[in-house]
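Quick one: structure for this chain?
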Amino acid sequence: MLLHEKIVILDWFHIHFVENNGMAFGTEFLPKIVLSLFRIVMIGGLIWLLRKMYQKNAPGIITTAFSMVLAGAIGNILDGMFYGVLFTESTPFSLANFTSSEGYSSFLYGKVVDMLSFPLWEGTLPNWIPFVGGSYYEFFRYIFNIADSAITVAFFILLIYNKKMSQAFRLIEKK
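Got it. Here's what it folds into:
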């Protein structure tokens, strides 16, 4: 797909190809190398944490949620590590191509591919809404990938089962 190309599957579900250079929602408040190294350290910490959880028989729902965070983090870091090395740059006018020579960036500096879009509602807001009335609005305009989805679902699982998460951490603290 071309950069920013969109395929409408359903009115509320699109495949929309974008590349994300930063963190969640495309924010870029850290240099890319710092973000990449932070992700690698966090993956190491998650592996250590999951190992402890399995050793202590922590609740399955909690180990599953942290496994989902780990899987999502690994997916995103692999994109950041290799996508820029293995592919040429995507543009709205040319496809990214697998390259055996030189990609568009160096190791750890690649972008993350996002492609899932769920624009649940779009239109003009009613004029009676203060400050934004009469302007175009798209509800849930964010574009994300499967790795992001795994992390988000895990976050909600951990919120819902926060007592079990506390129990899991108490188990880990015991010798």
